[in-house]
Amino acid sequence: MRRAAVIPLVILCLTAPLTAGCGSGTSGTPAPTAPAVRVKPAFDTRRARTDRGLVVRARGGRLGEVRAHAAGVPVPGRLDASGTVWRSDWALKPGAEYTVTARAAGPGGPPAVARGRFRTRVPEHAFGVASAVPLPGETVGVGMPVILDFDTAVRDRAAVERALQVTSEVPVEGAWRWVSDTRVVYRTRSYWAPRQRVTVTAHLSGVRAAPGVYGTADRTFAFTVGRAQSSVVDARTHQMTVTRDGAVVQRMAISAGMGTTREYTTTSGVHLTMDKGDPVRMVSPGREKGEPGYYDKLIDHAVRISDSGEYVHALDNVWAQGRANVSHGCINARPDQAAWFFAASRRGDPVTITGTDRELEWDNGWGFWQLPWEEWLLGSALNSPAPTPLPQR
């Protein structure tokens, strides 16, 4: 008699948590990762890039402390919303040694601590601010722009623009606009609030302007916005009204450009007072001595309002002032009133002219207020209305 084969019974554990008698009894939940800290540039680097700044990251936890110094000076920076990434606000100084201490804590083990140092590279070529307007400590009008000229052509405009910071005691919206490879202009959306201090800082140290070209020093200056003075000129009625802090302080009969040619036509639009002289030599443009219309005169109490030769100035032709436009494009007024305006004017005071068929170009002198705000923003390398710069990355 044949016996049946015996087939052994095998029980497979497919899922350990569902079968108590199978497996090693572990819960299957991953063990927490011990916290770790990573610093970039890496410690002991001898020629670290400057334009990417300092970045500290935590893994498996959150940063509780980040301290960084260069030559004993704290490095400003900020922690992101997750608490895991800290970035320096600005680029790093070239040829400097940095020391960093960072701590991170998490649920997976003891806190992690990273301590070390690195050194940044020295650039092949340096660039910086060649000139700035306004002058440090200058008191200006409410329409004043900030104009920075660089000593080298800037190819990475966005990087340089991120490094430019304007802070005012009264918050205001403003933006930079590039007008050339070496010039950038800051204009506010509306006029500055009067009687406040404004500080401009170009955090250029370590910023890359072009291949091999880096900033080696920051530049900071401050100016004061004074009283709110503005003037309105109507070339049709031949009148000029000066207002200060909302009250009329002077009414002046004037004579504007005769309008027989383009150059003799006063420009309409929002001008700013740019500089002044007493006297100023004025020579007819494009004419030689002896030709019709040639002149070469010294003019008293002249306040410049454009780059095309327009001034508000004194002239003793009271027969025309208030009655007819007979000038070569300037606004002339009675000598005593022109002297008053000369003394009362500060750079950046708005002078709005109406009543002519020639419009002031936005890039004629400081005609920046001729551009609508949305159009002004298009000249920003960041294309953003926010005046607060972003950290260097």
UniProtKB/TrEMBL annotation:
Matches recorded under Pfam families: Big_10, YkuD
Residues spanning the signal sequence: 1-20
Protein keywords: Acyltransferase, Cell shape, Cell wall biogenesis/degradation, Lipoprotein, Peptidoglycan synthesis, Signal, Transferase
Regions annotated as coiled coil: none
Alphabetized InterPro entries for the sequence: Big_10 (IPR041280), LD-transpeptidase (IPR050979), LD_TPept_cat_dom (IPR005490), Transpep_catalytic_dom (IPR038063)
Protein name as catalogued: Lipoprotein-anchoring transpeptidase ErfK/SrfK
Active site per database record: H313, C330
Pathway(s) the chain acts in: Cell wall biogenesis; peptidoglycan biosynthesis
The L,D-TPase catalytic domain, residue ranges: 229-354
